[in-house]
Fold this sequence. Notes:
The protein has about 210 residues and is of the alpha+beta class. About 40% of the residues lie in helices and about 15% in strands. The protein contains five helices and five strands; from the N terminus they run αβββαββααα. Strands 1, 2, 3, 4 and 5 form a five-stranded antiparallel beta sheet that branches. α2 runs antiparallel to α3, α2 packs antiparallel against α5 (about 180-195) and α3 (about 130-145) packs across α4. The longest helix has 20 residues, at about 10-30. The protein is globular.
Amino acid sequence: MDATTSFESAFFGKCGAWANNQSVYGSSYGALGVLDWIGDVGAYVNKDGAHGVGRALDITAAGHANGFVDSNWSWRQGGSTDVRKYLGTAALCRREVGNVLTRWFNTAHHDHIHIDDYRAAGPVDTTKQVDTTIVQAACNHLNNAGLVIDGAWGTATENAYVALLDQFDMKCLDPKTNASHARTFFGYIAAHCFKDQNAGYYQYSC
């Protein structure tokens, strides 16, 4: 890898997989259509950490044929539709990499979604703020859980998570211990988000 210009090759493939899924979900669920372009504010950056070895990307927007997801604008909207598109984009990212930092993670990520593969796209880790905030947001925006999105997996979050699995008819899966189940779980979050439907519109059918 030429670190001054390039992605690390395996991470580049994961970014491609996310972009492909963003296009498929935008076309298959809802009306966004195919993905035409993405906006970013950084991939390789000469500093320590994942950016410094070409294993990170900061996504500012996803431009589709019939609309867009803006990482600085969509989550700020009062209605559910744009917030859900933003959440769905984050969920699709989490299918490919383990670290997905969103506006719910901290204020530094209010204008972009940071993704990197320093952590594998494994099961949902209830000890990690990156996973907990996305799950809490999904419980709120798809199933009206009313959680405080604080990154702490307590009793309320566990109950809301179980309720979300139940709405997906997915209680025979265990996204907290199985990476494949987690990938399915995040896919269902994304499908509901792009379709702009409450949890339960699509059923896994355990």
